């Protein structure tokens, strides 16, 4: 195979590294970093309260049943406890999200293990734990279903129908004529497990209700979360109060990965209900790790079947994709996860005939929910491993098969979206092959395996390659519907405070926003802060999800900074001002108006953005795409059948990189979490409840299991949408490496593909012991 | 913390005699040393209400192991860290240092004790196999006197030990080693570090000039209700020349001696297959040397 050299071309063809930026493209210190590493930062469990109670949740131990009664047994001073059941709820017993199917506390039908049935609180933290052992729940058990297959076959019908949603893209079906035009047809089924987000800080909320006489004056919650305004919307109907009567404050948050997108709605409701029943005493509900793993959402398990037809030269001619997700016991965010999975399932390839169908199924498992990638990792795993499998069956190198079929500038996606941004996937692929020394390594590895086999050696090596795209921001017209706002204040001394609902949970929101504002305003980063998300103070800039923080909200920070400058020009700030003159203008504004300068901007869609049709799933699914190629190597040990990834390169196109070290950190972290998804992380579901709900038994890779990674950014100019041509990268990295590592294991095992992840040693053993010639 | 702390009063004896008095007089006493296992049980709420006997308050207990004339004595407060860092011990009993490194993280290694690992009686203990491979002897003390039990006869069933309620394990003794042994230790965990074993082999072999197996130790974790010294498989191998055929025989014999189960960490099938692979790996590595 010939690989064109790209190294010298990078400088010519991409954005130069130091375009005259004063702050952007530099690794500025994280404004909140020192407090985090010195322990000064206030996480929810550090927040001091007085006269508080500790709240706990009584949960279901059966997967499906009718709740008959809850008995509070002797041995505990129950009269000292605050107890809340569904009957106490003052407003609507519904967790507001998409569908109204999930209650805060079960009233009658239990849909899954760990479902909240009642709440208790007491001022003795240890006694409230002990009291849980003195509660007996009477349930009439019903038959339950746990797998996608059982749900499809309707072995038990849950809600009105087991099928929660069905979406379709492309041809209604692929005709027999098209299949007969193909020289080879290859089919495969791919399955992924329920990955757990495993943020370091567990879920935690403190709730407090203030009264005005008997009436609720204000419902306030503080805690670890990604979406403060989701919680406002969830608490309003629960207490039947107005928006102004709810206040949500995000405290320092130790990781989220989507796990703190929707779940804090439930926990906030619980803490606030207990406080309300306790007459307004603050109630602390901080989950321990076991409860967090037992009760909270995980990634939707998937089962995806792909049938592809190829011409004799390797051209992809037809693609039929049947995508299924396990929703669990309630719908939560499933329709959106399903939609995103569907919109990524065909991969970065051109194909004349594509038909893709996506369905989600209710079961009696714990409800599955948001997790970094949001359906995409499942879809990308299936397609990328399938392409590798096809390459093996067609006897073409996986890199060659991709090159033959890569999406090109001007091509049309199955949704009808024309790729009118400057994509150059050939460049990305070639650079990755060059960087990893792919051709030589593949040859050397095959020789190594041959010599191991002939000498009775117990090591095998493999190399795996994958490519993928990720659509940034909400799908379709979601951003327009969201109608986000960002504001800024400027005080007399020239200090700028950015007001937005976006949260910092480790990914660098504060740093990125401060850098953008500093660049526009021409003032030092130390003069700029980002306000703590407090819904009484900051405008709703949408949730901190969907790789949208930099590209959408960052752009609004840029526009808001420009609006601020315009205001200052009214008090005489000239062009080409100095930082000193900026301060003088701030003082002048205050002298004139005697108030904080406040500016606010709202989301504006790019003028020529294509329409999206929610009904037909046609049009521009995403405003911007990011692109990535991963090449990694594994070593399989035939004594214990473990696979260890020991080489890993990624080449990434995500527009301009605003902060190189944070960007690389996002890629490395996503890659590591994806290796966990592919090789280690096995949520053992027993009757839909997590049996291995401890750090000791839910195995994520540690630094000893993850190789040093070589990350390279190719920065194609992309000027239409994000701030300074930047796009979002939160999710892109987690999509493909699980497939790459599965492909590498298959290569090591003589092209025997293991198509369900995680690829635990137990699965490799079966292949090693049963297959020929390994 | 799911356990209710008032359920666990603590007694602080100042001497061994006082501690033994307490054990003789009261029931439901749990000795507390490093506390690294108790901590996990309390956190998960599975630790039965009991009185803790704090061994740290006993002045007679020295933390540092005693090592002289090739004899090693591990005291009730000797930690893994001691075995990792005392170079004389590392040289004399390398399996102890290797095992110590495999256990959890540095913080736990500095706190957790060898005797605690024995007394916790987990079938997945990482330290016990190394001790057993070195023919460790336990000294058990009570108000009525002392007795010695070989470690490999100490376990009688899952969490069942040859230990009376009034007895305390006060010493682990390792006899001096003959020259000429080759050691092997391989833990198969769910990841490289911070893992509980799915199977583990601590092996030692002594071959004579004619490649005959003079003596052998095969100790396994996580494939039986307790740390298993595979005496039957050892006897298949003992006094016979080390050949590919005898390795096959040992691989067969071990299958009858282990009794692994399916659990949340692995499967019986995997544990059987890999245990066989470990024996083969250990013996093969000695085949050609």
How would you explain this protein's 3D organization?
The complex is a heterodimer of chains A (774) and B (289). Chain A is of the alpha+beta class. A seven-stranded mixed β-sheet of chain A has the order 3-5-1-12-9-10-11. Chain A has a six-stranded mixed β-sheet with strand order 7-15-14-13-8-28. A four-stranded mixed β-sheet of chain A has the order 16-23-24-27, with helices on both faces. With 289 residues, chain B is of the alpha+beta class. Chain B has three domains: 5-57, 2-Layer Sandwich (Uridine Diphospho-n-acetylenolpyruvylglucosamine Reductase, domain 2); 66-174, Uridine Diphospho-n-acetylenolpyruvylglucosamine Reductase, domain 3 (2-Layer Sandwich), CATH 3.30.465.10; 181-287, 2-Layer Sandwich (Enolase-like, domain 1). In chain B, 35% of the residues lie in helices and 24% in strands. Chain B contains eleven helices and 14 strands. Chain B has a five-stranded antiparallel β-sheet. Chain B starts with 9 loop residues before the first strand and ends with a helix. The interface between A and B is medium-sized, with 30 and 31 residues.
What topology emerges from the helices and strands here?
The complex is a heterodimer of chains A (774) and B (289).
Chain A: H1 7-13, H2 33-38, E1 53-59, E2 65-72, E3 82-85, E4 109-110, E5 116-122, H3 125-131, E6 135-141, H4 148-152, E7 163-170, H5 176-181, E8 184-192, E9 204-212, E10 215-223, H6 228-239, E11 246-250, H7 263-277, E12 283-286, H8 289-295, E13 302-310, E14 316-328, H9 334-342, E15 353-362, H10 376-394, H11 398-405, H12 425-436, H13 438-455, E16 459-472, H14 478-482, E17 485-490, E18 496-499, H15 509-521, E19 528-530, H16 549-569, H17 579-593, E20 597-602, E21 612-613, E22 618-619, E23 624-637, E24 643-653, H18 660-680, E25 685-686, E26 689-690, E27 709-713, H19 737-748, E28 756-757, H20 761-770
Parallel strand pairs in A: 1-12, 8-28, 10-11, 14-15, 18-19, 24-27
Antiparallel strand pairs in A: 1-5, 2-4, 2-6, 3-5, 7-15, 8-13, 9-10, 9-12, 13-14, 16-23, 17-18, 17-20, 21-22, 23-24, 25-26
Helix pairs in contact in A: 6-7, 9-10, 10-11, 10-19, 15-16, 18-19
Chain B: E1 10-11, H1 16-25, E2 29-32, H2 36-44, E3 51-54, E4 66-68, E5 71-74, H3 80-85, H4 87-92, H5 94-102, H6 106-111, H7 114-120, H8 127-133, E6 137-142, E7 145-150, E8 155-157, E9 160-161, E10 168-174, E11 181-188, E12 199-207, E13 213-221, E14 228-229, H9 231-237, H10 244-257, H11 268-287
Parallel strand pairs in B: 1-3, 2-3
Antiparallel strand pairs in B: 4-5, 5-10, 6-7, 6-10, 8-9, 11-12, 12-13, 13-14
């Amino acid at each position: 195979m010939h690989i064109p050299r790209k190294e010298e071309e990078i400088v010519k063809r991409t954005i130069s590294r130091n375009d005259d930026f004063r702050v952007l493209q530099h690794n500025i210190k994280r404004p909140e970093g020192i407090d985090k590493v010195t322990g000064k930062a206030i996480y929810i469990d550090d927040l001091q309260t007085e006269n508080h109670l500790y709240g706990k949740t009584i949960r279901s131990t059966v997967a499906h049943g009718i709740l008959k009664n809850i008995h509070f047994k002797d041995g505990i001073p129950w009269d000292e406890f605050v107890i809340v059941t569904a009957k106490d709820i003052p407003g609507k017993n519904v967790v507001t999200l998409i569908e109204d199917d999930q209650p805060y506390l079960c009233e009658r039908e239990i849909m899954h293990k760990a479902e909240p049935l009642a709440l208790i609180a007491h001022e003795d933290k240890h006694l409230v734990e002990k009291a849980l052992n003195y509660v007996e729940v009477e349930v009439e058990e019903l038959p339950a279903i746990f797998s996608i297959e059982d749900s499809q076959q309707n072995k038990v019908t849950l809600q009105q129908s087991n099928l929660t949603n069905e979406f379709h893209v492309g041809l209604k079906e692929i005709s027999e004529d098209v299949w007969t035009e193909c020289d080879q047809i290859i089919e495969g089924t791919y399955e992924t497990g329920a990955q757990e987000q495993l943020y370091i800080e567990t879920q935690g909320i403190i709730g407090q209700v203030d009264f005005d006489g008997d009436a609720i004056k204000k419902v306030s919650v503080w805690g670890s979360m990604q979406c403060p305004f989701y919680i406002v919307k969830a608490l309003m109907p629960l207490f039947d109060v107005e928006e102004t009567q709810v206040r949500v404050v995000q405290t320092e948050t130790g990781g989220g990965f989507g796990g703190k997108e929707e779940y804090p709605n439930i926990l906030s409701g619980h803490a606030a209900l207990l406080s309300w029943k306790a007459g307004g005493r603050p109630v602390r509900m901080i989950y321990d790790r076991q409860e967090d793993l037992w009760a909270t959402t995980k990634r939707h398990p998937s089962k995806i079947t792909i049938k592809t037809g190829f011409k004799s030269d390797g051209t992809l001619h037809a693609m039929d994709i049947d995508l299924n997700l396990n929703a669990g016991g309630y719908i939560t965010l499933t329709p959106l996860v399903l939609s995103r999975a569907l919109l990524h399932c065909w991969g970065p390839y051109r194909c004349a005939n594509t038909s893709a169908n996506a369905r989600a199924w209710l079961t009696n498992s714990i409800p599955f929910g948001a997790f970094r990638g949001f359906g995409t990792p499942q879809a990308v795993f299936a397609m990328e491993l399938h392409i590798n499998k096809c390459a093996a069956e067609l006897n073409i190198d996986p890199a060659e098969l991709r090159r033959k079929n890569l999406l090109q500038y001007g091509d049309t996606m199955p949704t009808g979206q024309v790729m009118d941004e400057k994509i150059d996937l050939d460049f990305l692929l070639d650079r990755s092959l060059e960087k990893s020394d792919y051709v030589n390594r593949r040859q050397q590895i095959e020789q190594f395996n041959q010599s191991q086999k002939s000498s009775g050696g117990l090591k095998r090596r493999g190399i795996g390659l994958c490519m993928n795209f990720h659509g940034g921001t909400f799908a379709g017209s979601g951003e327009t519907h969201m109608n986000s706002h960002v504001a800024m204040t400027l005080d007399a001394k020239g200090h700028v405070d950015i007001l937005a609902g976006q949260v910092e949970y480790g990914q660098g929101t504060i740093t990125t926003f401060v850098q953008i504002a500093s660049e526009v305003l021409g003032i030092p980063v130390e003069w700029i802060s980002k306000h703590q998300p407090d819904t009484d103070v900051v405008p709703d800039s949408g949730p901190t999800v969907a790789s949208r923080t930099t590209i959408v909200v960052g752009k609004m920070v840029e526009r808001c900074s420009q609006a601020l400058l315009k205001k200052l020009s009214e008090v005489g700030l000239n062009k080409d001002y100095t930082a000193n003159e900026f301060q003088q203008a701030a003082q002048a504004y205050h002298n004139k108006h005697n108030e904080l300068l406040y500016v606010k901007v709202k989301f504006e869609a790019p003028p020529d953005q294509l329409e999206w049709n929610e009904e037909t799933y046609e049009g521009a699914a995403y405003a911007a795409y990011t692109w990535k190629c991963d090449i990694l190597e594994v070593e399989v040990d035939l004594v214990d059948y473990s696979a260890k990834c020991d080489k890993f390169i990624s080449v990434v196109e995500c527009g301009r990189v605003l902060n190189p070290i944070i960007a690389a950190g996002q890629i490395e972290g996503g890659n590591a979490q994806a290796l966990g998804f592919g090789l280690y992380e096995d949520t053992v579901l027993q009757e839909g409840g997590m049996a291995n709900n401890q750090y000791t038994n839910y195995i994520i890779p540690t630094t000893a299991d993850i190789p040093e990674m070589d990350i390279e950014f190719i920065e194609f100019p992309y000027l239409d949408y994000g701030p300074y041509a930047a796009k979002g990268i939160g999710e892109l990295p987690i999509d493909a490496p699980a497939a790459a590592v599965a492909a590498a294991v298959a290569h090591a095992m003589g092209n025997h593909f293991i198509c369900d992840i995680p690829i635990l040693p137990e699965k490799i053993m079966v292949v090693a012991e049963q297959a020929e010639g390994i | 913390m799911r356990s209710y702390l008032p359920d666990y009063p603590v007694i602080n004896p100042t001497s061994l005699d006082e501690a033994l008095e307490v054990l003789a007089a009261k029931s439901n006493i749990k000795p507390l040393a490093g506390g690294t296992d108790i901590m996990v049980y309390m956190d998960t709420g599975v630790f039965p209400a009991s009185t803790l006997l704090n061994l740290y308050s006993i002045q007679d207990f020295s933390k540092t192991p005693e090592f002289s004339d090739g004899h090693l004595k591990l005291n009730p407060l000797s930690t893994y860290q001691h075995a990792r860092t005392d170079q004389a011990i590392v040289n004399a009993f390398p399996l102890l240092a290797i095992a110590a490194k495999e256990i959890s993280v540095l913080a736990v290694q500095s706190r957790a004790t060898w005797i605690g690992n024995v007394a916790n009686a987990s079938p997945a203990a990482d330290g016990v196999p190394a001790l057993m491979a070195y023919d460790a002897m336990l000294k058990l003390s009570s108000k009525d006197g002392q007795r010695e039990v070989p470690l490999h006869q100490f376990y009688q069933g899952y969490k069942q030990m040859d230990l009376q309620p009034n007895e305390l394990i006060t010493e682990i003794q390792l006899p001096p080693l003959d020259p000429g042994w080759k050691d092997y230790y391989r833990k198969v965990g769910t990841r490289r570090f911070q893992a509980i074993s799915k199977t583990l082999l601590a092996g030692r072999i002594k071959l004579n000039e004619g490649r005959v197996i003079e003596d052998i130790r095969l100790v396994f974790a996580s494939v039986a209700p307790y740390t298993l010294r595979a005496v039957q498989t050892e006897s298949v191998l003992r006094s016979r020349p080390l050949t590919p055929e005898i390795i096959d025989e040992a691989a067969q014999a071990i299958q009858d001696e282990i009794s692994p189960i399916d659990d949340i960490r692995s499967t019986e099938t995997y544990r059987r297959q890999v245990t066989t692979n470990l024996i083969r790996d250990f013996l093969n590595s000695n085949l050609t040397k």
